[in-house]
Amino acid sequence: MTVSTADVVTAELRYFEPPADGSRPYQYTDYDPKLGVPQANFSKVPHAVPVENIRGKEDTVSLDTTGFQYFARAAKHTAFTNDADVEKEYYPESIELVKELLGASRVVPFDHTIRRRRPEELEDTPQKRQPVPQVHIDQTAESAVARVHRHLPAADVPALLAKRFQIVNLWRPIGNPAYDWPLALCDWRSVDQVTDLVPTTLKYPDRDGEVMSVKFNPNHKWKYVRGVRPDEFVLIKCYDSKDDGKTATFTPHTAFADPSTPKDAPLRESIELRLLVFYD
């Protein structure tokens, strides 16, 4: 496999376009055509943008400045074939890892998604998730607080919300380096929080959640690491209650078709683990 050494690629990233009728945007997570409504009521419009490969320059980004940070640490659990085993083995080691790296006092994983790209697969169910080619942020401030209420004992919530907390996504390739459909991450400092972000209802089978859609802005600065290995991972900040104007509070991100991907690269497989992170 011949790997490109280009520092920057031009890629098509799909951005949010608001509903034409001005209604609140929504998207179903598990869609059934029998519902009689579209899966989403907004459009996704491709824009050609430069994406910088920072392989060898990973120290130019960090969780609190850009909103994401790369690390090298192999996982003990490597199969990722059974959800129960992932929760039993990968969750505990990830809790300790995040505590160590971030200095957190309490870390609570609340869900994970395994993605295996299969171009011929049309079904999109929790067991057959594909990479997501849409610029988005996993949480809004409201949905982040709702996650604390949903996943922590009610008696603990007031004290936890009184101090700093975050939602962090731990993203790691499975089996092979992720040359195919890698993850692009947007520097938080290049995002206009007033004009670029649109809260969007995420409709689960049993409830409504909320994510942040992202409108195109030519000032966005996109980064990735080409060929992230299974013994490497990236922490992606979904939310941070420390909102002082200087600390990154979120990270727009998306899977994308990298034009430099080798033709014989294995199809991307990855796991993302989302965690509530609390500090004393």
Summarize the structure.
With 280 residues, this protein is mainly beta. The protein has helices at 83-102, 141-151, 157-161; strands spanning 8-17, 26-28, 43-53, 68-72, 106-116, 136-137, 165-173, 183-186, 197-203, 208-214, 222-224, 232-240, 253-255, 269-278.
- Over the alpha carbons, how many angstroms does the gyration radius reach? 18 Å
The class by helix and strand makeup works out as mainly beta
**Anisotropy-based shape:** globular
What is the averaged pLDDT score? 95
Number of helices: 3
Task: Tell me how many strands there are.
Answer: 14
Poorly predicted regions: none
Beginning-to-end CA distance, first to last residue: 47 Å
- The arrangement of helices and strands along the chain is EEEEHEEHHEEEEEEEE
Strand order of the largest sheet: 1-3-11-8-13
Share in helix:
10-25%
- Give the percentage of residues in beta strands: 25-35%
The major beta sheet can be summarized as: 5 strands, mixed
